[in-house]
Amino acid sequence: MAAGYLGLYxxxxxxxxxxxxxxTAARCQGRLLLAEGxxxxxxxxxxxxALYEHRRTPGTFERCRTLLALGSAQRRARRLRAARExxxxxxxxxxxxxxxLWAGQTRAELGRIGGRAGFGDALTPAEQRxxxxxxxxxxxxxxxxxxxxxxxxxEAALTQVYRKLDxxxxxxxxxxxxxxx
Length: 181
Prior knowledge:
By secondary structure, this protein is mainly α. It folds into 2 domains: 2-113, Alpha Horseshoe (Serine Threonine Protein Phosphatase 5, Tetratricopeptide repeat), CATH 1.25.40; 125-176, Orthogonal Bundle (Arc Repressor Mutant, subunit A), CATH 1.10.10.10. The protein has 10 helices and no strands.
């Protein structure tokens, strides 16, 4: 159903040659393809088309929204360096615009990329998220679904969490982590 409405919207955008509408249609196409599981060329190409159309429009808010969506798609496609660069560009734009909620969403997406912790045995942001969800009692499969990663990724992160916190079970992990207030 969404694809049908998007098709009608895109047809009208093409007919009037409205750059804003063309950019929005392309971004929506990218998001729709992502929702259908296309994390490679189709979704990324749609976001690139949206950015191309944004060059013909004034203002940066919608462009930053597209950068956020593209960065998320790049992360899901495991293009982490590109995702980090794209998301930093979006974050800079949202901060300059004074859009704290969008900047917060962008920071959260940047946090999902993970990376190495700056201090030896400190948990990375990705490991912290896995640990918190496991401490809540979720299974590895549930954690993977919540974080949009593979079960293998959750298992690898959990192995590192156990090592870094020197725990050997989910129960120990739950006791070791601070309780949310």
